């Protein structure tokens, strides 16, 4: 049966979401050797990009384009499998937009703005009233209709999604200075000394990489930028500062449109761009009351969901009992006479007898050999962990064999195992 969608909200229904999903995410190290950052697994079943796409869908947006570039096969395959339910006859569309020499025979996407510019003709065919530009590599739940409504009511040229961050952490973001009407009066891309928020000297207002434009205004801006030989063709570095200087740029606070269930106390937004951040965000989901509620039926995270049997726990002897404590265990997993604690297991993981797994993020179809002891690890998909392997007890030994972070998390790939 096809999916049936109710009529969308007034602004979202006339908008198109353009998702920028071409980045490698090199700080995730070997996790992005074979896939782009938006295609990295998260939360037991999903990929990172599913959060931005689900926000668009749940907000009522029914036209979506996804620009891909770096090692895109895994991402494209996921999108084709999990996001193929949009129907043309319902005025819906879902376009995968790899860099394809549409503008020049030797030009990949030169920057985030250029990725939209190279696809102007495709977007124009749909004639959306507004374009909402999204980063495809963050974890959050947000109702974009609220941001679209503010954009229209404020008569803005651009509306920028923003969140409050500690000043010492803000140098990795685009940082905004706003007046009391939320008009952006200055925009600094990754400043060394981020300006403080009015009345909050320890906090800064950081860009989420989410922008709303009237379509015609954006296209005029993109064409002008494309002709500028000195531009890096990037929204944060070039286009947004230009609008702040010569137009009307408005800040949209994430707290106004973040989606929270009854169990979520604070607005949740994470950039899982390092191995440590990725590990912590996944492990946090095993908390008794996690900061991110994946059980919220009112705002589901859509994804490609494999058909799998239920998780299975077998053997019941004192020294050989299949058990999981404070863990998330996905379909198709078999915990065979082994112990799992404070861990997240993706689809199809097998943990064999007498193994002990503690605080682990285990990607799909990993096989953990007998008597292995693993603590504080991220294991890439389809890795075969040898019988008796011990990780997480000797820092120097771990660092010589695997990718070990400053916080003591070991990333394990098949290539690393093969070198043992």
What level of helicity do the residues show?
10-25%
How many strand elements? Answer: 29
Mean pLDDT: 92
Shape: globular
Largest sheet: 9 strands, mixed
Rounded to the nearest angstrom, the distance between the terminal CA atoms is 49 Å
Tally of contiguous helical segments: 11
**Parts with pLDDT < 50 across at least 5 consecutive residues:** 1-7
Whole-number radius of gyration?
23 Å
Looking at this protein, list some descriptive labels.
single chain, 420 residues, alpha/beta, nine-stranded mixed β-sheet, globular, disordered N terminus, ATP-binding, glycogen biosynthesis, carbohydrate metabolism, nucleotide-binding, EC 2.7.7.27
3D structure, described in words:
The chain is of the alpha/beta class and 420 residues long. Helix content is 22%, strand content 28%. The protein is built from 11 helices and 29 strands. It has helices spanning 49-59, 73-82, 112-117, 120-126, 144-153, 215-226, 235-246, 254-257, 275-284, 395-401, 414-418, and strands spanning 15-20, 41-42, 46-47, 63-68, 93-98, 130-135, 139-140, 158-166, 174-178, 184-189, 203-214, 249-253, 269-270, 312-314, 316-317, 320-321, 323-325, 328-329, 334-336, 339-341, 344-345, 350-351, 356-362, 367-368, 373-379, 384-385, 390-391, 403-404, 410-412. The strands form 6 sheets. Strands 1, 4, 5, 6, 8, 9, 10, 11 and 12 form a 9-stranded mixed β-sheet that branches. A hairpin with a 5-residue loop joins strand 9 (174-178) and strand 10 (184-189). The radius of gyration is 23 Å and the shape is globular. The termini are far apart. The model is unreliable at 1-7 (pLDDT under 50).
